Amino acid sequence: MVKMEFWAPAAVRDDIKAAVRAIVTDSTRSPSLRPRSTAIPRSGAHHQMDAVIETPWTVPAIKSALETSELVREGELSVRVLEGADPVLLATMHEYGDLPIYLSVGGAQIVCSVLLWPVAEQPDTAAFNEFLLKAQRIVPLSNFAITNVGGEDIYELMGELSCKTTLQTILIELRTLAENAIDATELRETFGAAA
Fold first, then answer.
1. Which CATH number fits the domain 59-194, given the four candidates 3.40.720.10, 3.40.50.720, 3.40.710.10, 3.30.1460.10?
2. How confident is residue 47, by pLDDT bands cut at 50, 70 and 90?
3. Strands, DSSP E only, in the chain?
4. Which domain of life is it from (predicted)?
5. What is the distance between the alpha carbons of residues 120 and 45, in angstroms, rounded to a whole number?
6. Lesser CB count within 10 Å: N end or C end of the chain?
């Protein structure tokens, strides 16, 4: 057992407690989640981790898995590969106004990102950038960045995952990033009203 601590907004405290209770309850029922014996395993014994896959994801493999997965709600998203030096998956999130999310795989990670708006369109960029750094906790599990696209700086929201994570986790990341992109737009409006 390992003690873990983390900070979360008070508003989600009850949700976190419920999730922890569900995990603990499930761990007592599911043999794969029960604490393992401390005995040394026999030579050649394999222990598979629940939260990772053996073979790292590739962009085409993620596309294929999302297109055939029962985890994807009907009409929720469509995916296509954008060919280039390194292929990129474009996931169009139909439930979020056809929001485009770009997914790439490199090294040991999967990067999902949403392009937000040009930096040049943001009044008082320095103050807004400071506001974003302070607002980071309001938009959980995603990071703000500035990226250059075609010679123009664009605000970007992104999340990173292990390239050996489960498809369910990838899908959760896509949904979370879409929700956070909408929240980021609201933050921009909040900043504009406060400025």
1. 3.30.1460.10
2. very low
3. 77-82, 88-93, 99-106, 109-118, 143-149, 152-162
4. Bacteria
5. 58
6. N
Task: Give the number of other Cβ atoms within 10 Å of residue 189's Cβ.
Answer: 9
Token readout for 100 is 């485009």
Rounded-to-integer distance, Cα 60 and Cα 88, Å: 9
**pLDDT tens, residue by residue, 92-106:** 999 999 999 999 999
Kindly state the DSSP code that residue 22 receives in the 8-state scheme.
Answer: H
Which residue ranges make up each domain of the chain?
59-194
Order of strands across the sheet that contains 88-93: 77-82, 88-93, 99-106, 109-118, 152-162, 143-149
Beta bridge partners of 103: 89, 112
Q: Would you mind telling me the total number of residues written for the chain in this entry?
A: 195
Which phi-psi region, left, alpha or beta, contains residue 44 (left: φ > 0; alpha: ψ -120 to 50)? left
pLDDT tens per residue across span 155-181: 999 999 999 999 999 999 999 999 999
**CA 192 from chain center: how many Å?**
27
Rounded to whole angstroms, the Cα distance separating 26 from 173 reads 23
For residue range 53-80, what is the model confidence (pLDDT) as tens digits?
778 899 999 999 999 999 999 999 999 9
Contact 100, 91 (CB under 8 A): yes
The predicted model scores a pTM of 0.69
